[in-house]
Structure formats: C-alpha cells, structure tokens
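Team,

Forwarding the record for the chain on the shared tracking sheet. I've put the sequence and predicted structure together so nobody has to dig through attachments.
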Amino acid sequence: MIICWLAVSFIITNTNILNYGILMQSVINLKGLIIGCLIFYTASRVQSASFHQSIAENIQSIMDPLVATNNYAGNVVVLQNDSILFQQSYGNSDEGHQLENNRNTKFMLASASMIFTSAAIMKLVDERRMSLADKVDNFFPEFKNGDRITVHHMLAQRSGIPAWDAGWAVENLNRDKPHTTSQLMEYFEGDDLVFEPGSNYAHGRSEYILLAAIVEQVSGLPFGDYLEQAIFKPLGMHSSGHISNLMSASDIPNLANGYTEKGFTDVEPAPAIHWSVKTGHASIYSTVDDLARFAQAVLNRKLLSRQAWEQTLTDYGSHAGYGWFLNAHNNHTRYQVNGRSPGFASYFGIYPDDDLVVIMLSNRYVSLPYFVGPELAAAALGDSFEVLNLSIDNIPKELAKKYTGHYSMGANFYRPHGTVKIRYRNGRLYSGAYPLIPVMGENGDVIAFIHRHYWSRLEFGEDSRGGTILHFDDHRGTKQGFVNEWKWVILSAMLALGATYAIWKWKFQHRNKKANS
C-alpha cells in the first residue's frame, strides 16, 4: 500500500495541469492505479485473514484431543505483534458447580511466579537500593554460609542452598498452614550447601523464598504489596497478585480450583496447600491477559532499565537466567518459563525475534503445558508440529506383555540411575501408579504412550540383540532380564515376610507380657 500511495503522489506532482490531454491521461492512469491498489489491499487483507484462520485451525487441532480426553482445562492465548492469533478457554474452573473457565479466570502460576520475584529484585537494583553483588549475610547475618552467597547466585539458581523441603518429613512441613517468609527460612537457614555457590545449577526454590524476604526487608513492604506497587499496578495487571499468609485462595475472586488426574480420564481435587508456603517461587496468580501485558514489558524493555532486562535474560549456565530459561526452540530465540504445583500447570513463552507470545494456564496438575506450549508456537510460526492422536481404548494383552517389566535408566534420568516399572492392569499400561495413554499412528498402530501425570512421551523398541528398550522423553532405559525381574519379586516377598514376622513377634511378646503381669 505504501508503494501505491507513493506512485499516486508521483503522478499528481508530475502532471502538467495546463496541458489538457496530459491531464486527462493522468486522471485515467490515476484512476486505474487507485483501483489496482484497492484490489491489492483487499486481497492482502483477505490473504492475511485466511492465514490467521489457518493458524487458529492448526492450534485448535493440537488442543482438541487434549481436551476431549479430559487432560486439559484452562486458558490459551497466542499473540503476534500484540494481535491475538488464537484465544480459547476450556473446561471448568469449578467441577463441583460446573463453572466454566473464561478469559477472566485466574490461575496459580506455580514456578512461573519466579519471574516476578526476579523483576522485583531488579527493580530495587535499578533504584540502587541494593546490588547483585550483595551477599546474604548483608540482609540476614545469621544465615549459614551467607557470606558466600550473592544475590546473583540466587537469581540464577546457582546458590547451592538445598531445597527448602529436602530435609523435612512431609508431616512436619505444614504445607496447608500459612507461612511468613521468616517461618519458611527456618526450614533451611541452617543447612549446609549442596555445592559451591556459582559452580552449578539446581532448582531448589529456597533461594527464591530468600529473595522474597530480601524484597520485604529492602522495600519495607510485604512481598505482595511491593509486587502490586512496583510491577502489577504500573503494567495494568489488575488481576494478578500474591497469596500471603494473611489470606487464602478462597479470598481471590475468579480463581480456578485446582485438580489432579484420577485414573485414565477422570480428575479429582488436588491436595490442599496454603500458597504462602511457596512464597517467592510459586505463590502468584494471574490471567492470560495480564501475562500478555507483562510480555509486552519484556519485549519493549519497559518497567525495568534496558541493562536490568539484559542481565535478567542472560544465560548463566543450564539455560537459566534470572527466573527465565533461555533455550532456543526450532532455531527461534525464546524466553520461557513453566510451572507445576498441586492443581495447576503453566507455560509462558516469548519469541522476541518473531514478536510471538504463547501462554497456557491450566487448573490440571499435569505437566502438559510444558510440552504442548512449544507445539502451539510451532504452529503459529509455520514450523512442523504434532497433533497427538490419543486413544482411550484398552490395548491388547499380547502387546502389553512385550512392554511390562523394569527398565534401568541412565545417569541423566530425572532420578539418576532410577528404575521405571511398567505394568499392565485392566487393559491399561501404567508407569508406576500413573496411566499411560496410547498414541495412535496413521495405520491404527500404537506408536507411543503419554504419561498422564508428567505428560512425558514413552516409546518402546528393540536393541540389536532383540531386547526391549524404553525411550522416556530423551532418556533411554534397558529392560532388566529374567534374573533381575526375579530379584524384585524375591525382594518384595522378603519384605512382606519380614513385616509379617515383625507383627507376629510383637503380638507374641505383647501376649507374653500380659500373661506375666
């Protein structure tokens, strides 16, 4: 259209209006040019609308099987150049009252909350109220090894502080009780470091609790109040906030209830927790629209200084920045964060070179958004993507027999050198206690399985000697032989016999004690 208007301007400015013949010919040329430009403009608009419609249809095709099998409920939005390519709400925010999710529904962000703790710290750094080089003992002199850990170490998750709940029995953590930041720090402030600060990466979460406490100390405000004042309000994020020890989830209007998977297709309420136990690393609720506003702040380097954003979005090792992960996707630069906490899961991806934003917020305790979010981005960018053909049918016992057993995994598995147990029950395969959903190929064959809880992909095959192997995401495991399988049976039997003997012995001693008294 710009070229068209330049051409029109050229004709007008270079026409001799005193020569009638030339003037009339110019009018004819101008009329034809304007009609041509209008036709071109209309066609381009139609083509653009058709292209956007194609993207929306592709994204919907990815989502359909996930929703149909009751594995996804929540909100999805995909934006490019600040325009919506796709937006849809799925499932219920409240299963008991059959209240549907809608665009205004709020969701807990789980670990995606960390980007706001990071932004809060960087805001204080911008204001020169603190420094990235400050050490923990500047703020908390009694914190063990606080003289060795900097704010930078904690933001980059390279502090060496152990996971806050690592050394405690679950019943002693009081996850369903309100906690202040100081009460949370009591769980780990005296622990030894698991590695030298700066030498490694670990998603322990404790450092982000500590960062929230530092925000409170430096700002003089409760953590949630500072986020509201410094981040949410300036960006117009009026549906976002932090659940503190002074409130509960029921105080937040339009906050979805969280659910976890039950069996093969059902769901049930997720385990109850008080979200203040996740202060700093998983305590934020928000909406897709509010996250879209934050994405624009990231893309346009608003709210924080340009230097602060560059420091935030630098890879300090293991693709980790300050709360964000910086790993390319299909050769596209990407800032990404995801989360998963009881009842909720999230994915927030920003593709700065493509001005693309993908947001998935779910009230299902299933890691689906982490795997599906990139597929939605691929569809929007014109890259190849996968539509899962999920089946809810039973699988033949003969096929299951090939796959059942114990698989020894490698050193880089989620549990290093762990064992994956595949079993068959009532027509279904299970990995431990969790169902495996069959993925069907074009010929109607089972080509893979999806772990319903973690949404990992499991594929079975054969090695060069005919043994069965398991690909669990990017990890390979080897099926244990007959002897190793019997070790599990014998061990289980010995444990059962030992427990039976202990009970019998206790009863015998108790009976003799009563007889002698």
